[in-house]
């Protein structure tokens, strides 16, 4: 199969020599921090830099073998049963931010630290540590996230919020199919959030045709209009300009 032959080798890499004493020390430290985090929820960000460093060491030295698990992912699943994503975020912060930035991160929290790591990963040795740390201290979390997004993409972004709601397993296929169908119509580059919004806008537009609620209908049309490419927007406006005249 094309692309797979490069993965084959007659000389697989040697496993790192396991320093059992160091491994037990690091694993104990991780458990202490996680236990402390649960007890001190209000101060949970203050030791995240240390936790990220230890997690990186566990992965590099394969310390997880001390616990007879099959992989680093399985090790993380035990420590972060709700989501392994946070562990990888902390490791990204440790791997991408320079030491002088990591020393000051306890002042701004790990979520802002993750945003700083995105800029540092792009800029590498040219990362303006002092300027970005100052912004992180001064800006609210959401505003700082938008500033980083604008820096990386050159585009302004809307404030966002994660919304949680429960679905029964029998409902998931219907929701997933609706979002996938909307993505095919709107373009696969659109986020699932946008696709869900368009499904809701379409529902509201249809529901309010019979209720004479023109305001909701207008809002739905405006949101649909924003997704039209430039040329099709012009065609849309020209069509209604002709009707109006």
Description of the molecule:
The protein has 245 residues and is mainly alpha-helical. The protein has two domains: 20-153, no CATH class; 172-244, no CATH class. The protein has helices spanning 20-39, 48-61, 72-79, 85-96, 99-104, 110-123, 129-138, 141-153, 172-186, 192-207, 214-226, 230-244. Residues 1-8 have low confidence and may be disordered.
Low-confidence stretches: 1-8
User: What would you call the structural class?
Assistant: mainly alpha
How large, in whole angstroms, is the Cα Rg? Answer: 25 Å
The main sheet comes to: none
Features:
single chain; about 240 residues; mainly alpha; elongated
Brief overview:
This protein has 245 residues and is mainly α.
SSE diagram, text form:
Blueprint: H1 20-39, H2 48-61, H3 72-79, H4 85-96, H5 99-104, H6 110-123, H7 129-138, H8 141-153, H9 172-186, H10 192-207, H11 214-226, H12 230-244
């Amino acid at each position: 199969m094309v692309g797979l032959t490069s993965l084959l080798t007659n000389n697989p890499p040697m496993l790192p020599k396991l320093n059992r004493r160091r491994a037990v020390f690091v694993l104990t430290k991780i458990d202490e921090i996680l236990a402390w985090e649960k007890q001190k929820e209000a101060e949970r960000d203050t030791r995240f830099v240390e936790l990220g460093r230890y997690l990186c060491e566990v992965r590099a030295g394969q310390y997880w073998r001390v616990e007879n698990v099959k992989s680093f992912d399985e090790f993380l699943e035990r420590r972060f049963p709700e989501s392994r994503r946070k562990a990888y975020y902390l490791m990204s912060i440790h791997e991408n931010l320079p030491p002088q930035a990591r020393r000051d991160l306890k002042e701004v929290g790990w979520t802002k630290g993750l945003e700083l790591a995105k800029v540092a990963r792009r800029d590498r040795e040219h990362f303006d540590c002092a300027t970005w740390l100052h912004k992180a201290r001064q800006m609210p979390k959401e505003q700082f996230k938008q500033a980083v997004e604008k820096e990386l993409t050159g585009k302004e972004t809307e404030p966002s919020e994660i919304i949680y709601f429960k679905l029964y397993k029998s409902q998931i296929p219907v929701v997933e199919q609706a979002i996938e169908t909307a993505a095919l119509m709107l373009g696969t580059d659109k986020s699932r959030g946008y696709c869900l919004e368009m499904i809701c806008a379409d529902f509201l537009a249809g529901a309010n045709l019979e209720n004479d609620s023109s305001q909701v209908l207008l809002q739905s049309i405006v949101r649909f209009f924003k997704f039209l490419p430039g040329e099709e927007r012009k065609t849309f406006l020209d069509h209604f300009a002709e009707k109006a005249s």
